[in-house]
Design a protein that fits this description.
By secondary structure, this protein is α/β, with parallel strands linked by helices. It has a domain of 124 residues. Helices cover 53% and strands 10% of the residues. The protein is built from 13 helices and ten strands. A four-stranded parallel β-sheet has the order 1-2-3-8, with helices on both faces. Helix 2 packs across helix 4, helix 6 packs parallel to helix 7 and helix 10 packs parallel to helix 13. The termini are far apart. The N terminus is likely disordered.
C-alpha cells in the first residue's frame, strides 16, 4: 500500500497522541491514589466511577437503591474516598482529557483508511450527494493539537472533494460559526470570515477548498447544536443533563452569545438542502440569540428540573478566555425563508420533544 503525505502526517499524529493519552492516564491514576486512596490495578470503568462519586460508599448506596447489586464494589479492594470535591472534579477533567487524546488516536488511524477505503466505496456507489460532517471541533483541543486539526479538518476534506469532483456529486460541507471573529455577531452568509483560532482557521481553509473545487457544493455553517444526541459524541445539553442527574451544579457564561439550533431542526434542514440541492453558503442557526446560561435555563424548564443547579459566570473567568468568542450569532433570514418550519423551530420546542421521547416506555 502506497502512503500519501496526508497518511504519513496522520501516522505521526496517532503515535504522538497515543503517548500523550497514556501519560495522562498514568497521571490521573496516580492523582486518584494520592487524593482518594485508590490502590491496586483497576479498569477504565472503575476510574469513571471514581471520577463521578465522592466515595465508594456513596456509589454503593445508590447502586443498592437502584437494586443494581452486581455493580456494588468491594469496599476493601476497590476503596476510594476523595479528600475534597475540588480534587474529584480535577481528576475527572484529567480523565476526560486522556480519553479524548486516546479517542483521537482511533480517529487518526481511521482517517488513514478514509484516504484509501472511502475513495473506493464512493467510487463504487457513486452517491449523488456527499455530506462531510467529520471534524476535530473542540476549540481548545485544536489549539493544543494544530497538526491533528489540520489533518482532520483540511486534508480529509481535500480527499473527499477530489472524489466528489470525479463522480459529479453534490458536496455538502458542514462548517461552523467559528470561522468568524466572534466580536460583532449577527453574521450573514456574505460576511467575510476572519478566524482567530486554529479550529476556525482550519474550517475556513477547508471552506476555501470547497469553493475552489469544480463540484456543485453547499457550505452549511452550523451554530451551537443542542438536544439529545443519538450518534457519535454528546452535545452541550447532554452534558448538562448528565451532571444534573448527579445533582451537580454548573457554572455557565451569561456573556457568550450564540444562535443555538436544536438537532431536529438542523438535521431536517440539511435533509431539505439535499433534496432541493441547495448550493452556495447557508447559515443554520436557531431564531433566538441566547447565552449558555439562558440555554441551560430553557433545558431545565423543559425537563422540570430545579434552576438552582444553574450558576451564572462570566467568560472572563475562563483561563483561555482570550481564545473564546463572545458573540457568534447568525443572521438566519435566508434559512428561515428557505425552510420556515426548521428556521423558526425553537430550542425549547426541541427540548420538550426530547423529554417526551425519553419518557416513552421501552
Amino acid at each position: 500500500m502506497a502512503f500519501l503525505g496526508t497518511d504519513l502526517l496522520l501516522i505521526g499524529s496517532a503515535l504522538s497522541l497515543s503517548h500523550h493519552g497514556h501519560q495522562l492516564r498514568n497521571d490521573y491514576e496516580a492523582f486518584a491514589a494520592a487524593h482518594a486512596g485508590v490502590s491496586g490495578s483497576h479498569g477504565k470503568e472503575f476510574y469513571i466511577d471514581v471520577a463521578n462519586w465522592i466515595s465508594v460508599f456513596d456509589y454503593n448506596e445508590q447502586r443498592m437503591a437502584d437494586r443494581s447489586f452486581g455493580a456494588v464494589y468491594d469496599t476493601e479492594t476497590e476503596y476510594w474516598m476523595w479528600d475534597s470535591e475540588g480534587n474529584r472534579a480535577r481528576m475527572d477533567e484529567m480523565r476526560l482529557t486522556s480519553d479524548r487524546s486516546l479517542n483521537r488516536v482511533i480517529y487518526a488511524v481511521a482517517l488513514i483508511g478514509v484516504n484509501h477505503e472511502a475513495r473506493e466505496v464512493i467510487r463504487t456507489f457513486r452517491p449523488t450527494t456527499i455530506v462531510h460532517a467529520a471534524a476535530l471541533s473542540k476549540v481548545l483541543e485544536c489549539e493544543q493539537h494544530p497538526v491533528s486539526a489540520h489533518d482532520q479538518n483540511v486534508a480529509v476534506t481535500e480527499t473527499l472533494l477530489r472524489v466528489a469532483e470525479e463522480i459529479k456529486s453534490h458536496f455538502v460541507y458542514i462548517s461552523t460559526d467559528q470561522v468568524f471573529s466572534g466580536v460583532d455577531g449577527n453574521y450573514t452568509e456574505i460576511d467575510l470570515p476572519t478566524p482567530t483560532h486554529v479550529y476556525g482557521k482550519t474550517k475556513y481553509a477547508a471552506e476555501q477548498l470547497v469553493t475552489q473545487a469544480n463540484s456543485d457544493y453547499l457550505i452549511a455553517r452550523s451554530n451551537n447544536i443542542v438536544g439529545r444526541n443519538v450518534g457519535w459524541g454528546t452535545s452541550f445539553t447532554d452534558g448538562l443533563l448528565e451532571k444534573w442527574l448527579r445533582n451537580q451544579s454548573v457554572d455557565l457564561f451569561t456573556d457568550q452569545i450564540r444562535s443555538p439550533i436544536h438537532l431536529r431542526a438542523i438535521t431536517d434542514g440539511l435533509c431539505n438542502c439535499i433534496y432541493q440541492r441547495v448550493s452556495g453558503i447557508l447559515h443554520l442557526g436557531g431564531p433566538e440569540k441566547l447565552s449558555r446560561y439562558d440555554t441551560a435555563r430553557k433545558l431545565a424548564a423543559a425537563y422540570g428540573l430545579p434552576l438552582d443547579l444553574i450558576k451564572s459566570a462570566s467568560m472572563s473567568s475562563h483561563p483561555q478566555a482570550h481564545t473564546l468568542h463572545k458573540d457568534g450569532t447568525f443572521d438566519t433570514i435566508k434559512f428561515q425563508s428557505l425552510f420556515p418550519e426548521q428556521g423558526y423551530f425553537t430550542i425549547l420546542d426541541g427540548f420538550r420533544l426530547d423529554r417526551g421521547f425519553a419518557l416513552q416506555p421501552s
